[in-house]
Amino acid sequence: MAVVVFVLAVVYRIVDVQFVEGDQWRQQAEQIGLDYKTIKATRGSIYASGNDLLATSLPFYKVAFDPALANDEIFKSGIDSLSHLLSTFFRDHSSDYYMKRISEARHSGRRYMILSNRQINYQEKEQLSRWPIFEHGQMLGGIIFHKVDKRHRPFRSLAQRTVGYINEDNVGVGVERSFNDYLAGREGTGLFQKVAGGNWKPLNVSSDVKPRDGFDVHTTIDINLQDVAQNALLRALEKHNAAYGSVVLMEVKTGEIKAISNLTRQNGGGYAETYNYAVQGTNDPGSTFKLASMIALLEQGEISLGDSIDTGNGVKEFYGREMIDESAKKGGYGKLTIQQVFEKSSNVGVSMLVDSLFGDNPQKYIDLIKKTGFGKPLDFQMMGEGVPYIKDTDDKSWSGLSLPWISVGYETSVTPLQTLALYNAVANDGKMIQPIIVKSINRANQVVENFEAKTLTKRIASKRTLEKLKMMLEGVVERGTATNIKNSYYKIAGKTGTAQKLINGQYTTQRYYTSFAGYFPADDPMYSAIVVIDDPKGWNSFASWVSAPVFKEIADMIYSQDLDIHEEFESQLLAEEGTFPMIRAGYYDELRELCNELGISNHLEGEDVEWVRTKVDNNAITWKRNHSESDLVPNVEGMTLRDALYLLENKGLKVSITGTGRVRKQSVSPGMRINQGTRITIELG
Which of 236, 321, 464, 519 could form a disulfide with 528 if both were Cys (CB 3.0 to 4.6 A apart)? Predict the structure, then answer.
């Protein structure tokens, strides 16, 4: 009975407080001003592949004070020194001002005051925590630090659009927005009291729920390669006064994006990252699409690279509209092999081949292309991937012109990243993989979740077709439209693309969308890349002179820095061991004197030579010239360290050394142009 009576009494009191006295208590609560408020979690950091910070949250603090908490002894003994320290630190008011303001607040019973509008960093917070009165903490000294996180980007504009941002309304772009669920953490709640001035004072009660900090996101971006790619793109955009540009660099086997940059010309001048063209921007790809056309032609199995086709004067009419080659200005290419059609990027040749093989069944051509996976979304990790469009024959816009024009990259729309995935698949022996830009989610050093590139298509074409595709892509650089980026140190495989821009519903021959997609080294691909530059100005606005050089500049820099890509030291450049001492390369006068002293027959090819390499001829040594132009990197392989250092440093190169012995490898290849501050590593062995 006692329990029943007690329960009824509790129920009665609840009803009385809630409904009878409710208005009274609610009014009093408003006057007291207690409320639970959200406490934001510290946002996780974003890292590059080498644990370099791309974005992180730095803690800053607003300094507040409850002058009534300290007892009289603590307050009286410390207020004078505290006022002086506040005045010296914030430099906004005198020490007398601070003493008067704090004392008046204490006398009037004011429990909360903002000491300064300036926010302080963590080191300054620790400094203030040791001051008189403040040193007793929040409960006894009254000091209150309100934490305010600020997003900091150590590399500033580097990969700015890729890293992205997010605002308080969860509106944003890039990694910040796409991985916000991981980065944001979990918010907490705390009891706050509203005090004079409309400010809220935290009460730090036991019912507070602490926030949980966000996870860290580790990307695949390589800071050094990102810097190389972004600067190479910027120089090209400025040189050609282009509207915008984009570059993506990816590892062939892993699909990891090592660099991605998107730059747009600003109204006030200069370029900035404002839109992710690589991931979001769809466009007629132009001649880079011819790789897909060749896949369809070769998979049909009715042509070989040695077959020929007559492209005539470079003009071919399809359904009342002319298809034109650039060569038409000079009378056309005439008869070309299939290999040459691709190398010279003949629009007439490709469209004639596609029309002859698929004119009766154009959907089969479309199906063969889509079978590779090209033309489908990549399901990329970042939000906002552009939707690819390769029309089918049942599309309302399909016409007789569609097949020949699609075959050379028009009436279709794909993003640069989607195009790169196709070229990367050729380099990856036919395996199309999903590009990735985030490798793992971590909490401190502990991996929470790993990401690997998904296989989108196990094999885009037969092995036989892939071999032919590789030959054609290499041929473009060796003999075709991109011979200007050919070099003797490593091979590049790729394809130029120059698409007319669609202006007011019509294609114009005066403005272009240029691109180059490919991979390197061609014989053992490690990296694939695509470069897009839109609307370049000047007399030569074609891809071979606009986009392709950017690709080569990036490839050259990687080649110069990655010793694993270099071929082993060629044995024919070494003197034979045994009869002869180990003489390989060096300063001619010294080496000749040494050979004469040892009685070794030696002969010089040419005159006025300072630096030489050796060539063994029967029982004699022939000296061969080994000195480059003043602005080219010399060949120091085989030299002693003394000679190599002398020669390299006198060229203005900054030299790093590993190992002992003679020079076995050099990181920057002989014949490369020397830029100011160029670094070179020589490996001894």
Answer: 519
